[in-house]
Amino acid sequence: MRNPAELECWLTDMDGVLVHEEEALPGASELIAKFKERGRRFLVLTNNSLFTPRDLSARLQRSGLEIPEENIWTSALATADFLANQHGEKTAFVVGEVGLTTAMHEAGFVMTDIDPDFVVIGDTRTYSFEAITKAIRLIIDGARFIVTNPDTTGPSPDGPLPATGAIAAMITTATGRSPYVVGKPNPVMFRYALNRIHAHSESTGMIGDTMDTDIVAGMEAGLHTVLVLTGSTTADTIGKFPYRPSRTLDSVQDLIPLL
Known about the structure:
This protein is an alpha/beta fold. The protein has 2 domains: 4-47 and 184-258, 3-Layer(aba) Sandwich (Rossmann fold), CATH 3.40.50.1000; 86-181, Rossmann fold (3-Layer(aba) Sandwich), CATH 3.40.50.1000. It has helices at residues 28-37, 53-62, 75-84, 98-106, 129-140, 164-175, 188-196, 211-220, and strands spanning 9-13, 19-20, 23-24, 41-46, 72-74, 91-95, 110-111, 118-121, 144-147, 153-154, 161-162, 180-181, 204-208, 224-228, 247-249.
């Protein structure tokens, strides 16, 4: 097992690891300070494609966490990077919010509903029947179907909201086409993150709260994985999975003495 103190770089999930809703979790601020103090390169990862890194940095700052936007990596950024490296015209019909459209523009894509190479579905709070209908017809006509993340629901104060995965399932049913999903648990999101901070898998750790996204993706990317029990996965449910994290801790507060 690799020693956390010897790892040069870290990837960490956001919700359930550093914050819960708008509240910083125990040890989160100290962990980020420790990374900076020891000169560790790090990225905060999230499947959320609604917001730009600047938006998320401001949200985290309100929670007491000082994380620059360049240290935030979203599924929207990973999707844009992935598509920028694919063959074909850089044209896309996009269903999503500013986090996704900004990332796509910055990757050189033109947004169009006229014969696009890609249909890209991300998180939005304003899914429209017209946009979904257009996406279905474009995919049937040959556009490649891409989804930023597989999450079927998202949180809200009033309860779960339908998210990207739920809309993608509807489009799959209507078209008979399955999408390529870029976000966690696809390790491609981690590979692009590693490239962004010039990291190598052998010297990088991944901190997550979810066994079937954070931990499995980190494991498949060859990272040292740390599961914290402040989010989705509880101690009682770890045994249901056929794989195990490198370490299991109650919170990131318990990781700080090991760095």
